[in-house]
Amino acid sequence: MTFSTYLYEKLQHVWRQNHTHPFVQELGQGTLPIEKFRFYMVQDYLYLIDYAKLFALGAVKANDIGTMGKFAALLNSTMNEEMSLHREYAARFGISLDELEQAEPSPITLAYTHYMLHAANNGSLADLVAALLPCMWSYWEIGVELNQIPGASEHEWYGEWVRMYSSEEFGDLARWCLDLFDHLTEGKPQAELDRLEMIFLNTTRYETLFWDMAYHQETWPIR
Ligand SMILES: Cc1ncc(CO)c(N)n1
């Protein structure tokens, strides 16, 4: 069994909380209040800035030219495609570039991105990928699952989100990340696998906390 399959099966009870979260369910049903999605978009833009840095660090930590090139391509497509799509999508919700760039990260956004950057900066390439994998994999799975709800991909406001994350292009990225993780963890000592499992578990949990933060539009309780 690959390490990703092992983690996936072992952590299903945590993993599924992302799928069943009211934010995700209401997004798929098209009933999510627009202000909650608007709040999510701004925080997710801030998230993507640090997420892109993980790809840059992946290029630094890669041990072969092929992997290095792939991380460079991921950095480029996140910075110059996904984020510009995000800006256009945000504009439809009346969110200006200024608002996106001057927004303050919420406590959860800050904790999540800094946790990922800490794992990536201080660990091996496997640590970096363990931090990254739940984000990509769970968004892809959620995208595919929501895309099966009749009308979800054509929804006036949320259809674009569903189409983006259920796309073959996004699926290819998630699959590449999965294969890399399984390759990097093959035959690794148990102590290292245990550390990677903790990182994977924590970023899976942070995904749920991120949906929760958006659903409740949580900012700093202290201004
Ligand atoms: C919080 C979060 N996780 C994962 C993704 C997938 O890119 C995203 N855009 N935002």
TrEMBL record:
Q: What is its EC number?
A: 3.5.99.2
Q: Where are the coiled-coil regions?
A: none
Q: What class of enzyme is it?
A: hydrolase
Q: What UniProt keywords are attached to this protein's entry?
A: Hydrolase, Thiamine biosynthesis
Please give the superkingdom of this protein's source.
Answer: Bacteria
Record domain Thiaminase-2/PQQC: where: 9-216
* Record InterPro entries: Haem_Oase-like_multi-hlx (IPR016084), TenA_E (IPR026285), Thiaminase-2/PQQC (IPR004305), Thiaminase_II (IPR027574), Thiamine_Salvage_TenA (IPR050967)
Q: Which reaction does it catalyse?
A: thiamine + H2O = 5-(2-hydroxyethyl)-4-methylthiazole + 4-amino-5-hydroxymethyl-2-methylpyrimidine + H(+); 4-amino-5-aminomethyl-2-methylpyrimidine + H2O = 4-amino-5-hydroxymethyl-2-methylpyrimidine + NH4(+)
| UniProt xrefs under Pfam families | TENA_THI-4
Q: Which NCBIfam families match?
A: salvage_TenA (TIGR04306)
User: What is the recorded function of this protein according to its Swiss-Prot or TrEMBL entry?
Assistant: Catalyzes an amino-pyrimidine hydrolysis reaction at the C5' of the pyrimidine moiety of thiamine compounds, a reaction that is part of a thiamine salvage pathway. Thus, catalyzes the conversion of 4-amino-5-aminomethyl-2-methylpyrimidine to 4-amino-5-hydroxymethyl-2-methylpyrimidine (HMP).
Which family is this protein grouped under? Belongs to the TenA family.
Subunit (UniProt): Homotetramer.
List, alphabetically, the PANTHER family matched. BIFUNCTIONAL TH2 PROTEIN (PTHR43198), SI:CH1073-67J19.1-RELATED (PTHR43198:SF2)
Query: How is this protein named in the record?
Result: Aminopyrimidine aminohydrolase
